[in-house]
From TrEMBL:
A UniProt-annotated Pfam family: YknX_C
Localization, UniProt: Cell envelope
UniProt feature, compositional bias: Polar residues: 124-136, 195-208
Residues of the YknX-like C-terminal permuted SH3-like domain: 459-525
Coiled coil regions in record: 239-299
Family label: Belongs to the membrane fusion protein (MFP) (TC 8.A.1) family.
Residues passing through the membrane, by range: 21-40
InterPro entries referenced in this protein's UniProt entry, alphabetically: RND_pump_MFP, UPF0194_transport, YknX-like_C
UniProt-annotated stretches for the region Disordered: 116-150, 189-220
Primary location recorded for the protein, binned into one broad class: other
Keywords, sorted A to Z: Coiled coil, Membrane, Transmembrane, Transmembrane helix
Official protein name in the record: Efflux RND transporter periplasmic adaptor subunit
Length: 532
């Protein structure tokens, strides 16, 4: 109002001067007008509202803090395959660095020797069963004899006594037969040894006389050269002497051959003695005798006959022997089956190492090859000991491997910090890759970006408007046209946003220009940065 009124008055003065005032009065009037305009301009100048400053408003939103690092891709699943058999390697398809599928045949064996051993085990098992069966049959015969003796004992004790006497006589006879068989076996062995000695001596004599005959025949054939000093008569006499010697030796050799044939015939006539049969017969008779004696004792006392046949311990021993034979057969059968089956990949993966050589002999328990999974994989990171507190199991991550991106999650954190190549303490962190594909390569470097902290619907500011001093973090706020320094507390910090946990409320205006000269208490005019 004041400015308007002043202008009007000045205009009236100007009009009057044009009509009535002389020229010397106009100059002071113009000075007054200039001063009036200056006053109006001063009232409407920025000094009245202060310097314009850009401000941002404290808002609510989501803040995510990320951690970025590079690490090595490793397999979480590794298996070393060993040979289950001792057998030659017929075929080896395992090559270092190649990808294989579960069920793929990687090593095949030559099982001929294994099949031969299996046949031997089967025959051994059958032999054990036949031996036990024979023992049971003998036991049953003894049991039958015992049962018969029990029936007879019920009729007459005298009859049992007679049977015992007869059986004792039989045992004695069988004992004599066994002793004779043993003696005969010894005598036959001695006789056979003597005959063999004579035959060997005979052959030596034949050989010696044969050599002598050959020498005589050689001298006869070369008599002129051998006896050059003999005259005609002496040479004729010598020739006759050599002929007589050759004839004599020929006859002696023939006689020795005839003698050898006679000795050979004698040796063949010395037969073996069935000691085993005699021993079995004697053993059975003794068992029957003991059964008769037991029956007699029971008949005399009115008791029951004792149990005959094999004992429980014997039956258990038979069962054990058969089980052992069956286990041996089963073991060889399993080895044959494993050998024929070969070694197959148990899961999809990459061949990491190969020890098997095609054509060589594999040793049972020997290392063949190593398979690592390319489906169960992770990235191993080395995190500074100053940042490990940000690592939480379950943190989500984005993994870049070549041109491919994968989802990841923090799976494991080591419990010890170890020095890296530069000597700085680092902690191992394992980030599992959740969606692997055929583009995964083991041992290469991958880039990992991990969300280590996240807050939703919290107060935040742009990171660049926050200042840090010796007393802590602070910002400049504009309140009532005046700048005020405000200490704040921060939370989660992302690349562009920072959470404000204390010191500010939603809607507060914070000075965005932290590079200018801002002073606490200065008068300013706030201009929102998004509308500036």
């Amino acid at each position: 109002m004041f400015g308007k009124k002043k202008v009007v008055e000045e205009e009236e003065i100007v009009k009057k001067s044009k009509k009535k005032l002389p020229g010397w009065v106009i100059v002071p009037i113009l000075v007054v007008l200039a001063l009036g305009f200056w006053g109006i301009s001063a009232l409407s100048s920025p000094k009245s509202s202060g310097t314009e400053l850009s401000v941002v408003t404290v808002k609510k939103g989501d803040v995510k803090e990320t951690y970025s690092a590079s690490g090595k891709v490793e397999s979480e699943k590794e298996k070393v395959f060993y040979s289950p058999v001792n057998a030659p390697i017929l075929d080896c398809n395992a090559k270092v660095g190649t990808a294989v599928k579960a069920g793929e045949l990687l090593v095949a064996f030559d099982t001929k020797d294994l099949e031969r051993e299996n046949q031997k085990s089967e025959l051994s098992e059958q032999s054990t069963k036949y031996t036990n069966q024979d023992a049971l049959e003998q036991s049953r015969r003894s049991a039958d004899a015992a049962a018969q003796a029990q029936v007879q004992a019920a009729k007459s004790t005298e009859t049992l006594k007679q049977q015992i006497a007869d059986k004792q006589a039989q045992v004695a006879k069988l004992q004599t037969a066994y002793d004779q068989a043993s003696a005969d076996a010894g005598a036959n062995a001695e006789k056979a040894n003597a005959l063999q000695s004579q035959m060997e001596d005979n052959l030596k004599q034949q050989s010696a006389k044969g050599v002598e005959k050959e020498n005589s025949q050689r001298n006869l054939d070369n008599i002129d050269a051998v006896y050059p000093d003999l005259d005609v008569d002496e040479r004729a006499a010598k020739k006759q002497e050599l002929v007589n010697t050759i004839n004599t030796l020929t006859q002696e050799i023939e006689d020795l051959k005839n003698t050898y044939r006679e000795l050979e015939g004698q040796l063949n006539s010395v037969g073996g003695t069935d000691i085993t049969g005699a021993a079995q017969a004697l053993s059975a008779a003794r068992q029957e005798l003991e059964a008769l004696k037991t029956s007699l004792s029971q008949a005399a006392s009115g008791g029951q006959a004792a149990e005959t046949g094999v004992t429980k311990a014997q039956l258990n021993n038979m069962a054990v022997s058969e089980n052992l034979a069956e286990l041996a057969t089963l073991s060889t059968e399993e080895l044959v089956a494993k050998g024929k089956e070969g070694i197959k990949a148990e899961f999809d993966g990459i061949i990491a190492d190969v020890k098997a050589v095609e054509g060589s002999a594999a040793v049972q328990g020997g290392e063949l090859f190593t398979l690592v999974s390319n489906q169960d994989v992770s990235v191993k990171l080395q995190v500074s000991a100053n940042d490990f507190d940000k690592m939480k199991v379950g943190n989500e991550a984005t993994i870049k491997l070549g041109d491919s991106n994968y989802k990841g999650v923090l799976k494991e954190i080591d419990k010890i910090a170890l020095p890296n190549e530069k000597g700085n303490p680092v902690i191992g962190v394992t980030v599992h890759i959740e969606n692997p594909d055929e583009n995964i390569y083991i041992g290469v470097t991958a880039k990992v970006s991990m969300i280590v902290a996240e807050k939703k619907d919290v107060l935040y500011l742009p990171s660049e408007v926050v200042n840090t001093g010796t007393e802590g973090d602070f910002v400049y706020i504009v309140s009532g046209g005046t700048v005020k320094k405000q200490m704040i507390e921060l939370g989660v910090n992302s690349a562009s946003r920072v959470e404000v946990t204390a010191g500010l409320s939603e809607g507060a205006q914070v000075v965005a220009d932290t590079m200018g000269t801002i002073k606490d208490g200065m008068k300013v005019s706030a201009v929102k940065e998004d509308t500036k």
